[in-house]
Amino acid sequence: MANVGIHLVVDAWEAPAELLNDANRIREALIEAICAGEATLIDLCVHQFSPHGVTATATLAESHIAIHTWPEHGYFAADFFFCGQGKPARAMEVLQTALGAKQVTATEIQRGFPQSADPRTRRSEAVFQGVA
Amino acid sequence: MANVGIHLVVDAWEAPAELLNDANRIREALIEAICAGEATLIDLCVHQFSPHGVTATATLAESHIAIHTWPEHGYFAADFFFCGQGKPARAMEVLQTALGAKQVTATEIQRGFPQSADPRTRRSEAVFQGVA
Fold this sequence. Notes:
Two copies of one chain form a homodimer.
Chain A lengths: L1 E12 L3 H4 L2 H14 L4 E8 L5 E7 L2 E8 L4 E8 L5 H11 L4 E11 L5 H13 L1
Antiparallel strand pairs in A: 1-5, 1-6, 2-3, 3-4, 4-5
């Protein structure tokens, strides 16, 4: 397996509804999380739903962070996909703390593809076969 | 478990490098995928890296789609997080076809939280206990 990055899939609950419905607070929390995760922000979209709920996507040089909140359930879903040298677990901790979630589950997924499928590897094999 | 949505985690490879490095084609493919998935686009960010690679995030009324490409490996990672009535599997198929990936793995994750943690449920229990 050729790993390109780590993806933390996070579900968090028992968070105050007023924080989960505060688009400005979520924007600030995302920027804090991106800084803490040592990532580089390319673009940030924060959208307030009516009557409640906020969704936000941060496009990063390292990949992305996304968050979707359900204030009426005290719940939010977040994703931290980082390639390179960033610290997704640190970003997750900062977001969880900023939004006051008492409960959280995080699943780490290694993103990537079979090493044997890499065209650069296959090209090397072809060259080697040619030489042999 | 209270499910709020379905998240398809997709890794795809054996795709042509020229497609994976074409930001305009990826923008078009995402819009096609969003339409096929019967989702509503709020915001779309498409970013071209140098010397190669494209990253894009689509903020949806239903949650989000994200894609990150590694043309040099013929690989892309994509996420389709849909709450509500959308069709994430159909969106995935359209994106995979548009970008010419011959191989794909997709993992479906049910996003949500324990039913017992829902504050609306807990409030009902509290009322019931008060009555009892």
